[in-house]
Each structure stands twice: as C-alpha cells, then as structure tokens.
C-alpha cells in the first residue's frame, strides 16, 4: 500500500470523499433522501389549510329554512356536505367508517319552533379522533351557527323596525378580532414544514455521523483513519466530519432559501439569521452523533440510540405539543435537543419576527452542544486506536 | 409420498423458525430495537403526552378600559381552562416584550372604548394576538376569547332586552332563537395523547418490525460467504419454507408486542380502548403479515445491517402524515396517496383508529382489511421471489 507522506485533516478529508463515492448508500443519505424530504414537505400540505372537509346532514325538518342553512354551510370553504342520512345511527356509522368528519342534526319542526319562540336545538356531532379535521369542522360549524342564529335574530329585529347597524351591536355586543401572528390564515404548511424539514435533516445527519465513524470501528479501519490524520484524533475527526458538514450545511441553506424565498414563508429579519441557526443545527447534530458513537462504540448500539433520540427530537422540539404541557419531570429533557433551541430561534426571528437580539441566548445554547463531545473524547479515541470495544 | 413431503416441510419450517428466533434473540441490536423501541417507546410517549390537553396558557392582558365591564372581561378570560392571565400591563409594547421573551403566548387587548360602546349599544371590539408557532396555543386563545365574547355578549343582550320590557324568557328566546350544541363523539376532551398515540403505536410496530427484519437480513448478508440473504445449505431449498419459517418467527414475537401496544398500552394510559383482545386479531394478523412480508421484500436493498437505520427510519414522520389521520385523508394529493398505499401503516392506522378509538366493528373497516390482506399477498409474492433469487444466486456462486 502506498503510504502518503503528508498527513493531517486534509488527507482524512480526501480519504472520506473517496469512501463516499465508493458506495451508493453515501449518495443516498447525503443527497437523494434530503431532496426527497424537500419534495415531500414542499408539496404535501400545499393547500395550507385542509378544505372541503366532508360532513353529513340529518334533516328532520326539511323546511326552506333548513335547506337554506345547508346551502350556507356548504358554501363555506372548510366543509362540504357530502351525504344525507335518515337517522343518527346511520350517520354515526359513516363517521366510524371515516367517510365524514362530523354531521349536523336539524330537529323536526325547527322552522315552526323558531317562529313560535320554542328555541329548537340543532346538534352537531364531530370526531376528535382526527384532531385536526375534527377541530376545523367544529370551528367552522360553530362560527356558522352563530351567524345563522344571529341572522334569525337580525330578521326578527328588522321586522320589529330596528335598523341594521344598531341591531348588530345588540346581537353581538362584543366582537373578537383574533390574530395568528405571522401566519394569519393558520396555514399548516407554514406551521409544520419550517421545523419538520430541518428536523428530518437533523435525524439524517445524526445517523450519518454515527455511521461514518462507527463503520471505521466496526471494520477495524480506524487505526488507518488515524494514521491519515498523523495520529491526531482531533484532525481525524475534523477531516472526517467536514465533507458532511459542507454537504448538509449547503442542503440546510438550500431548504431555507426554498422556504423563505421561494415559498415566501414569513420572515421579517435577514435570512442570514436563519442560515446561522440552520448551520448550527447541522453542527450540533454532528456533535451529538459523535457523542452517541463515543458513548456506545459498537455501531449497532449507537445506531439504535441515535435513532431513538432522533425520533424523540420531533416531540421535544415543542412544535406540535408544547413542552410546558408535558409532565414536569419530562420537561427538562427538552434541553438535550438542539432542535428545541432552533425552534425558539425560528419563533423569534421568523414567524413572530422580533429582533434577533432576543434569540442570542438560544444561539449560544446551540454552541454549547458543540463542546459536548469532550465528554466522550478519550473513550472514542481509545476505541479508535485500540479497537477495544465489543464487535458484532 | 405426499404425507412424507408435508411432514418434512413442517419439520423444516419449525427448524427455520427456531433458527431465526435464535438469531433474533442473540442479536443485541435487534433486541434493543424490539424491546427499547417496541416496548419502552410507547411508555415514554404515554408519559410525555400524559396531560392530554393544554391548560392555562400564559397570556398578557392590556386593559385600556379600566371599567367594571372591562375588568369582568379580563376576569372571565382568566377563568377559562385554556388561558391564564400571567401579566397585566399598561401598553401593548410591554406585552409584546413579554411575548418576544417567550413569557406569554398570547396578548388580549381591551380597547378604551369597550364599556362605552357596549353601553351605547354599539358593537365593542376586543383584540387578541396569538403565537401560532405551535397551533395549540392559537387554539387555546381562539377558543377562550371567542367563548368569553359570546357568553358575555349574550348576557348583555338579554339584559338590554329586559330593560326594554321583555320578560326574561322572551329576552332569552330573542337573543338565541335557535340553540346549538356540539358533541365530540370520540376523543371528547380533544386529548392530544388520545389523538396521537393510537397512530404512533401502529407506526412503532411497523417501523421496529421492518427495521428488525432489515437488520437481521443485513447481518445475514454480512456473515454469509456470498453476501446472499440465505446461507447455502442442503435443507434450505424450499423457498416457501424459508419465507414462511422466517415470517413465523417475527409473527410469534410481534403477536406479543402487538397485543402489548394495541391492548395494554391504551388501557395503561387511559387512551381510547374500544378494542378487546379477541377483536384485535382480525386486524393485527393481516397488519403483521403485511408488515413482515413488506420488511422481507425490501430487505433486498439492505446490504449490511446499518442500511435499514440509515435509509428507512426517516420514513417515520412522512408516514405519520401520509396515513390520513393528522392531515385529513380527503386532502392528500393522489400522488402521495398512491405512495401511502405501499405501506401497511396507512391501512393499519386507519383500521386501528376506527376500531379502537371509534368503536367500529371489523365489518366497518372492510376496505382497510382488504388493503392489508392485499399487501400481505403481494408482498409475500415479492418476498418469495426475493428469496428465490437469492437462493439461486448462492447456488450459482457455489457451483462457480
């Protein structure tokens, strides 16, 4: 074997590049999969808000009024009346089978009872097993009913000779104006993709890092790897990580450009701040990958733990369910996930568009992760030199 | 003759199954996955989402109308289960500062003209701003503020009508000529765990199983001389026996893990649990078979034992979106819908959700069951040819 005279991180870097082109799996995990993530999250929730959610109708009244109501409900964007049922059990069955997310039951003699002042009651049944669809149909329907009931109220008042403007103040004395900051139409794509996409990349980087180091240990090639670095473990690690840092950072920046420039997701600060957070996320994922393989120098074990941790990171970002809503003894765990700080930075810099000054502590927290591999430094170095870990 | 053939086949089958079981139990990687992820993950998630609903989201209130009505409004907002008035500040800027620092997730602003407008019979307005980086915050603000506006508004309307000489009943009817009541038939508390966990449980079963099968296949390829899935041995000539034998090993293990996940865990965490031990079988069986044969089919791509983790684990989050329980199935693009039909989790999650969370019977989830049995059949054929090809390959290598 030809032994190169020069050693150092550059030699390791070149060696790693050669390794990466030697097997298709490296291309898959660094290029192909990240592009598939982009394709998926870029197109999946393209509508932003689920529209035309199917609901059912039981109309016991069958009056001009009930038909008028149905027409008005059908005219809203969120829900669509797709089927009519004779009785409750039929409609419930359709709901259990997933054909509809909810159904309305108009009582018999509804129109007559309204005229007679008997306050008939309309029932709406919905399915919270599908929390998103259920909540959206409920929100739409309850708004609709307030409008419809208000409409009847208004007509009565107009008939009594009140003017319309005055009547509105009487019918709805307090009118709320609720703003969703940065995402006024509660677009689900904006809500989820900003975090899910980087989190997917983070998971990929974590596994790649564990693999790229662990495979050297598994194949007992790590002494050779260190020889390329001239015996310096630091240089060996830097040279090995750098190709991935470059590829994944470029990918992360590309994601940001796609989201904030192409899709025009809310961002009122310079995109540099997001770039910075994204690159930090790449680096922290690599740091944690190094910790994983250092803590469990057997590749199969560290892959397992990296996987478990990487999936848990989606929960601990706090994106879907806030950390404060978790039991106290599980809240602290969120500190172990860089994506948590990334999410906080995103909230400040992008969606709520406050001055980035507020997120400087979060940038610093992310930096702390980069120092953590020190904990396992010795152990990993010894494992690499002496190969003193259990093999498969 | 026929009898002897059957007997041999059965002996081979048992042998292959126990061989595979031995491999699995000896492999610490697979065991950590099956036990760590298959058994411990549901517990962890159960605890993480144990509180089910978000309560007392902290908000800041800017009450520019220091009147009894304004104060009543703030008091009512604070009394809702969703929100808690954590700060009362004088200006919107102060509130924004608290928001930016993450101390509050929403702001409610009562303008100075609030009482005056109400007393004059004009429509009064209140303003709310919510952090929507987490949709549940927005939901809390939206529900609470809307509720208080409607509730207080109705009382005001009734009082006004009574002051005009209507009786209490007349005023009541006039304010609400039509009543409306909503009922959440399933998951009535809008619990987050009750929503997420059932789907996650099925997905955990599928992903751990596929990864486990993939790791075992990768391991076999690393060990076997010719990097084929099956070592070349005399007794390993019946492809059918090998496929069924291996599948049976996973079926045995996952019958237990499956019942644990689908029956025990929902009971433990008081999640929806319509399903009984007997009723779960017609769903679990095709789901496991489809998953096992799916796993065996795609293990053709798993050249070594790390590849499954590197390339397959990342499907987990997209699969959770694809199965149509979070993002409504009615709104998934046909392209992605087609992709989703390749994965047993799509039918498995829907079937389990319908039976376990909504009390559907097995007859009501006919389409899901057919989907799963179809997948089981198709993936069995795939697995058969994958293994057949691998056997022929190793035979060829031996002869060369």
Quick tags:
heterodimer, A: 392 residues, alpha/beta, abc type-2 transporter like fold, 2 domains, four-stranded mixed beta sheet, 63% helix, elongated, B: alpha/beta, 15 helices, 5 strands
3D architecture notes:
The complex is a heterodimer of chains A (392) and B (400). Chain A has 392 residues and is α/β, with parallel strands linked by helices. Chain A has 2 domains: 237 residues; 119 residues, abc type-2 transporter like domain (abc type-2 transporter like fold). Helix content of chain A is 63%, strand content 9%. In chain A, helix 1 crosses helix 10, helix 2 runs parallel beside helix 10 and helix 8 packs antiparallel against helix 10. The radius of gyration of chain A is 29 Å and the shape is elongated. Chain B has 400 residues and is of the alpha/beta class. Chain B folds into 2 domains: 258 residues, no CATH class; 119 residues, abc type-2 transporter like fold (3-Layer(aba) Sandwich), CATH 3.40.1710.10. Helix content of chain B is 66%, strand content 9%. Chain B contains 15 helices and 5 strands. In chain B, strand 1, helix 3 and strand 2 form a beta-alpha-beta unit. Chains A and B meet through helix 2, helix 4, strand 4, helix 6 and helix 7 of A and helix 2, helix 4, helix 5, strand 4 and helix 6 of B.
Q: Could you outline the blueprint of secondary structure elements for this entry?
A:
The complex is a heterodimer of chains A (392) and B (400).
Chain A: H1 9-22, H2 24-43, E1 53-59, H3 64-74, E2 79-85, H4 88-96, E3 102-106, H5 110-116, E4 121-127, H6 131-159, H7 164-171, E5 174-181, H8 188-218, H9 222-228, H10 233-262, H11 272-295, H12 299-316, H13 328-331, H14 338-351, H15 360-371, H16 377-386
Parallel strand pairs in A: 1-2, 1-3
Antiparallel strand pairs in A: 3-4
Helix pairs in contact in A: 1-2, 1-10, 2-8, 2-10, 6-7, 8-10, 8-11, 8-12, 8-14, 10-11, 11-12, 11-14, 11-15, 11-16, 14-15
Chain B: H1 2-26, H2 28-48, E1 57-63, H3 68-79, E2 83-89, H4 92-100, E3 106-110, H5 114-120, E4 124-131, H6 135-163, H7 168-175, E5 179-186, H8 192-223, H9 239-268, H10 277-298, H11 307-312, H12 316-322, H13 334-340, H14 344-357, H15 366-399
Parallel strand pairs in B: 1-2, 1-3
Antiparallel strand pairs in B: 3-4
């Amino acid at each position: 074997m030809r032994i190169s005279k020069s050693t150092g991180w550059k030699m390791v870097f070149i060696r790693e590049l050669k390794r990466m082109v030697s097997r298709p799996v490296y291309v898959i995990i660094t290029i192909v999969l990240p592009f598939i993530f982009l394709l998926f999250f870029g197109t999946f929730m393209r509508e932003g808000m689920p529209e035309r959610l199917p609901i059912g109708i039981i109309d016991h009244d069958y009056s001009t009024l009930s038909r008028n109501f149905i027409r008005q409900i059908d005219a809203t964007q969120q829900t669509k009346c797709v089927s009519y049922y004779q009785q409750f059990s039929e409609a419930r069955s359709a709901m259990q089978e997933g054909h509809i997310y909810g159904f309305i039951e108009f009582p018999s003699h509804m129109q007559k009872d309204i005229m007679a002042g008997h306050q008939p009651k309309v029932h709406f049944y919905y399915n919270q097993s599908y929390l998103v669809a259920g909540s959206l149909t409920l929100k739409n329907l309850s708004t609709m009913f307030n409008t419809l009931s208000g409409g009847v109220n208004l007509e009565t008042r107009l008939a009594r000779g009140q003017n319309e403007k005055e009547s509105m103040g009487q019918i709805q004395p307090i009118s709320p104006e609720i703003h969703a900051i940065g995402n006024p139409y509660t677009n689900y794509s904006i809500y989820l993709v900003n975090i899910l996409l980087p989190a997917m990349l983070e998971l990929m980087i974590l596994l790649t890092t564990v693999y790229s180091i662990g495979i050297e240990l598994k194949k007992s090639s790590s002494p050779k790897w260190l020889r390329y670095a001239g015996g310096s473990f630091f240089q060996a690690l830097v040279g090995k990580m750098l190709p991935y840092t470059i590829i994944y950072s470029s990918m992360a920046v590309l994601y940001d450009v796609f989201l904030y420039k192409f899709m025009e997701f809310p961002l009122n600060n310079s995109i540099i701040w997001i770039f910075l957070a994204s690159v930090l996320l790449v680096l922290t994922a690599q740091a944690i990958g190094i910790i994983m393989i250092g803590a469990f120098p057997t590749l199969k074990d560290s892959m397992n733990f990296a996987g478990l941790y990487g999936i848990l990171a989606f929960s601990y970002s706090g994106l879907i369910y806030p950390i404060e809503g978790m039991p106290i003894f599980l809240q602290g765990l969120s500190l172990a996930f860089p994506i948590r700080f990334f999410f906080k930075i995103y909230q400040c810099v992008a969606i709520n568009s406050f001055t980035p000054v507020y997120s400087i502590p979060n940038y610093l927290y992310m930096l702390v992760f980069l120092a953590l591999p020190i904990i396992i430094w010795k152990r990993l170095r010894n494992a690499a030199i002496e190969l003193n870990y259990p093999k498969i | 003759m026929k009898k002897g053939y059957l007997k041999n086949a059965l002996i081979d089958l048992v042998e292959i199954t126990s061989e595979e079981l031995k491999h699995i139990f000896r492999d610490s990687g697979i065991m950590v996955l099956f036990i760590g992820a298959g058994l411990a993950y549901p517990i962890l998630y159960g605890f993480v989402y144990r509180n089910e609903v978000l309560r007392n989201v902290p908000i800041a209130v800017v009450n520019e109308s220091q009147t009894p009505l304004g104060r009543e409004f703030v008091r009512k907002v604070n009394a809702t289960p969703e929100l808690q008035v954590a700060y009362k500040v004088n200006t919107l800027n102060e509130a924004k500062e608290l928001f930016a620092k993450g101390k509050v997730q929403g702001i409610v602003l009562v303008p100075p003209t609030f009482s005056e407008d109400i007393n004059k019979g004009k429509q009064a307005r209140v303003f709310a701003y919510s952090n929507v980086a987490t949709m549940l915050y927005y939901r809390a603000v939206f529900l609470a503020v809307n509720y208080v506006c409607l509730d207080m508004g109705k009382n005001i309307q009734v009082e006004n009508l009574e002051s005009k000489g209507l009786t209490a009943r007349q005023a009541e009817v006039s304010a609400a000529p039509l009543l409306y009541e909503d009922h959440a038939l399933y998951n009535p508390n809008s619990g987050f765990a009750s929503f997420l966990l059932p789907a996650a449980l099925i997905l955990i079963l599928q992903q751990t199983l596929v990864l486990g099968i993939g790791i075992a296949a990768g391991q076999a390829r690393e060990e076997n001389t010719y990097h084929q899935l099956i070592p070349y041995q005399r007794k390993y000539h019946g492809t059918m026996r090998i496929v069924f034998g291996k599948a049976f090993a996973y079926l045995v293990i996952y019958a237990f893990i499956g019942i644990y996940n689908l029956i025990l865990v929902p009971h433990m965490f008081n999640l929806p649990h319509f399903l009984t031990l007997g009723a779960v079988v017609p769903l679990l069986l095709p789901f496991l078979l489809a998953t096992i044969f799916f796993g065996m089919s795609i293990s053709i791509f798993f050249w070594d034992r790390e590849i499954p983790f590197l390339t397959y684990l990342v499907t987990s989050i997209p699969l959770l979106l694809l199965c149509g329980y979070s993002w409504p199935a009615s709104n998934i693009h046909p392209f992605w819908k087609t992709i989703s039909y390749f994965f047993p989790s799509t039918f498995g999650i829907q079937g389990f959700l319908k039976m376990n969370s909504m009390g559907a019977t097995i007859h009501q989830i006919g389409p899901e069951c057919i989907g799963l049995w179809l997948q089981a059949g198709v993936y069995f054929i795939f697995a058969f040819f994958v293994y057949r090809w691998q056997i022929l390959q190793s035979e060829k290598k031996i002869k060369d």
